[in-house]
Amino acid sequence: MQDLLPLFLILCMATSGMSMETNSAPRASFNVMNFGAVGNGLTDDSIAFTKAWSAACYGPSRGARVIIPVKTFLVKPVKFSGPCKAPRITVQVLGKLIAPTDRKAFRANYWLLFYRVKGLVVGGKGSIDGRGYVWWPQPFDDFRPAALKFYECPGMVLAGTTHLNSQKQHIVITKCDGALITNINVFAPENSPNTDGIDIATSKNVRVRHSHISTGDDCIAITAGCSYIKIKGITCGPSHGLSIGGLGDPGKPDESVEHVEVSDCTFKGPGIGARIKSSQGGRGHISHVSYKNIEVHQVGIPIVIDQYYCPQGGCKNHTAAVRVSDVSFIGINGTYTQNDAMSLLCSQSSACTGIWLDNIDLRPVNPKKTAHAVCFNLKGRAHNVKPILSCLSHHPSSSFRV
After folding, report:
1. Phi-psi region at 202: left, alpha or beta (left = phi > 0; alpha = psi -120 to 50)
2. Which residues participate in catalysis according to the annotation?
3. pLDDT at residue 401 is higher than 50
């Protein structure tokens, strides 16, 4: 039954241009135009959005739908708060939401925030444009908000929408157990800094499926406190990869990510493909992670484990390290553009263990180059892997099993 829900949502959105429009649709609808929205892309429609949300969320209906029609809405930072009286609330995005370009309008770390809302569905054929180009020239550590955040929204669904040019991350979900993200598109220029497609934090049983993400940073980042995450059918790139981490900032408590499955994905363009990253000096673990059935097309480095992650430079050497164990890379094929097809560099003080590679065939784009890979302090096994990793025992026979 779980797999029927995303298909049901997609079919609903594909018919009549209406998202989630079925006989079981919510009983009450609240169009933002009826609450004073103008929709000309110039007038601030934030108050109208807030009023429509309040009517839907706190009204007497057993179910409610907020409708954002086919117009362009300028919206300043808005917090859509729960808990709602309605057990299920749908936000139907048919038009285009655009953020203000005046950075002074932002005082919190978000543009649009859904906060503590159960039974939330956000979907439709519309778009959410952060117009982040006014933020991107800022220094790396300057304040920048995420475009769309979900906090403590268990079972939330995000389906069908297009996300553009975020100020920082496009989508962040935190403490959203059982979330589903499906059939979305995320786009930002390759040189736009820190514009992750989807960040997942402190959540379990999350599914991300059948989406296209091309940004200036991680396609998807799975960060501390996550478990039982399933990623399937993602087209990713250019980007900094579909990443686990980064974990391990010195001074933080134990951080963990475990039970992550990535399958049937395609990576394109310069950057990184499958990636696990942690900084020196941290505590915690990354375990039971699998990347399976992955195609790479002219990717910079297709497979990376980096336990020396230091994005701003100048990091000190530490003996402590996040433990990495029981990680598999299976059925990864295609071409790469940099010197190494794989870069698996584990901590000097704590080896990566239980690393399994099977059926890997990575070829340099330039046929005159020799395929090459690097590894350090890696313990595990490999079968049918090209190029060969010198620090792993290779098993050419078909008896190898993962």
Report:
1. left
2. 217, 240
3. no
